[in-house]
Amino acid sequence: MTVASDSVTIGTTIDPAEAAHFGAMAKQWWDPRGSSAMLHKLNPPRLRYIREQIDAQWGGDAPSFTPLAGKTALDVGCGAGLLCEPLARLGATVTGIDAAAENVAVAALHAAASGLTIDYRTGSVDAIADRYDLVTCLEVIEHVTDPAAFVRGLAAAVAEAGLMILSTPNRTPLSRLAMITIAEGTGRIPRGTHDWSKFLTPDELTELLAAAGLRVIDRRGLSFSPATGFTLSDNTALDYFLTAVRA
C-alpha cells in the first residue's frame, strides 16, 4: 500500500479561469438539482465502471462492499468529493486534489458530516511525489492548460501495480451538439463549462498515456438517452473511459 504525504505542488497545468469557474459552483456541488446536477447523473455509471476495473485488476470479490480495503486512491480534480466519498466507502484511504480552494472546503465539510476521513488538498498533481494504488481523473483533462504535462503528472502518481482511470468527452460533432449546443445552451450545464476544441479523442489520450509510460487496458464509452440516462456502452462518440497500467 502506498501512503500519501502532505505535500502538493501547484502545477502549471492549472487554468486559473477554469478553477474560478468550478469554484464558483462549490456551494451547489452536492445539490442534485443544482449546477452539478449532470455530475450526479454521471456518478452511477462511473462507479459501475470503476468497480469493474477494480475487480478485474485485483481479483476482487464482486459481492464485497470494500474491494479497496488496504489500498490508497487519489482523485484528481475531485470537486467537492462526489467520487472521493464512494471510493472511501469502498475501503480506500482517499486523497482528493482540486485546483479550487472553495471546492476543497466544501468537500472537507461534507466528508466530516458523512463520517468519512478523506485527505483533501488544494493544488495540482503535476509534481506530486506520492504514488497511489488507484488514480482517478474524471472529466478534468479537458480543462487543463497542458494535457501532456498533466498526464505525466498523473502517471507519476500511479504505483507500480496501480491502476489509472480517466474519463473525458470525445471531440466529435455529437459531443459539441449534446454538451455545448444543448446542455450549455439550455442551462443544464453552466455556460462556459466546456471548450470543445480542448476535447481529446480516445486515440489522442491513449498516445499521451503511452508517452507517459502507461498502457491502456480498457476503453469504454458513456452514452446518453432520454429513456435510460447515462449508461456504459461501446460507443465512445459522446464521452469515454480509459483504464491504464504501467507499461
From TrEMBL:
CDD domains: AdoMet_MTases (cd02440). It catalyses: a 3-demethylubiquinol + S-adenosyl-L-methionine = a ubiquinol + S-adenosyl-L-homocysteine + H(+); a 3-(all-trans-polyprenyl)benzene-1,2-diol + S-adenosyl-L-methionine = a 2-methoxy-6-(all-trans-polyprenyl)phenol + S-adenosyl-L-homocysteine + H(+). GO terms for molecular function: 2-polyprenyl-6-hydroxyphenol methylase activity; 3-demethylubiquinol 3-O-methyltransferase activity; lyase activity; polyprenyldihydroxybenzoate methyltransferase activity. Keywords: Methyltransferase, S-adenosyl-L-methionine, Transferase, Ubiquinone biosynthesis. S-adenosyl-L-methionine binds at R46, G77, D98, L138. Pathway: Cofactor biosynthesis; ubiquinone biosynthesis. Its EC number is 2.1.1.222, 2.1.1.64. It comes from the Bacteria. Signal peptide: none annotated. InterPro entries: Fumarate_lyase_CS, SAM-dependent_MTases_sf, UbiG_MeTrfase. It holds the Pfam family Methyltransf_23. One of its GO terms (biological process) is methylation. Belongs to the methyltransferase superfamily. UbiG/COQ3 family. O-methyltransferase that catalyzes the 2 O-methylation steps in the ubiquinone biosynthetic pathway. This is Ubiquinone biosynthesis O-methyltransferase.
